[in-house]
Amino acid sequence: MADLVIILGWIGLYAPMALGAVGSIVGCAVSGQAAIGAMLDTESGYGRYVGVSAMPSSQVIYGIVIMFTLNRPIDVENAAGIFAIGVLAGLALLFSAVYQGQCCASAIHAAKAKPEIFGLSIAPAAIVEGFAVFAFIFALVISAGIPQAAV
């Protein structure tokens, strides 16, 4: 049983980075496809479309920082805490990246048809980013309470 708990701790250690990366991949792919479609239909604004399509990539950076914050020797005492924080923060990063990608795709479509609303159109994507930041900060704060493994 102790081995299973330690394995879960290792999963929790790498979950924020892995799940954040999966979400960023999906989010950037969705918004990137919208950006390419917009480039075919317009004669300008290419840089804005590409920039907005990269917004979901920030979740993998948050996941890497959380992973390094959780990084410590894993034992039975701290494995459950590392698992819970890592997996839950990773899932929050995954979903926020996917939905942010969808918001970015919508913003690109809207800006393509009506360029003067570009700034307003990315506001929903920024709001979704805020939820990723909340998960990131909570994971950092809560991880400070996880005990270090006895050496």
Keywords:
6 helices, mainly alpha, 151 residues, elongated
What this model shows, in words?
The chain is mainly alpha-helical. Helix content is 80%, strand content 0%. It has helices spanning 2-41, 46-53, 58-70, 79-113, 118-121, 123-143. The protein is elongated, with a radius of gyration of 18 Å. 44% of the residues are buried.
Short synopsis of the structure:
It is built from six helices and no strands. By secondary structure, the protein is mainly α.
| N- and C-termini, Cα separation | 20 Å
Q: Mind summarizing the main beta sheet? A: none
Order of helices and strands: HHHHHH
- Share in β-strands: under 5%
For the CA atoms, what is the radius of gyration? Answer: 18 Å
Query: Which structural class do you get from the secondary structure elements?
Result: mainly alpha
Report the mean per-residue pLDDT as an integer. 94
What global shape is seen?
elongated
Helix fraction bin = over 70%
**Number of helices in the DSSP assignment:** 6
Total strands: 0
Unreliable runs, pLDDT <50, ≥5 residues? none
Secondary structure elements and pairings:
Blueprint: H1 2-41, H2 46-53, H3 58-70, H4 79-113, H5 118-121, H6 123-143
Helix pairs in contact: 1-2, 1-3, 1-4, 3-4, 3-6, 4-6
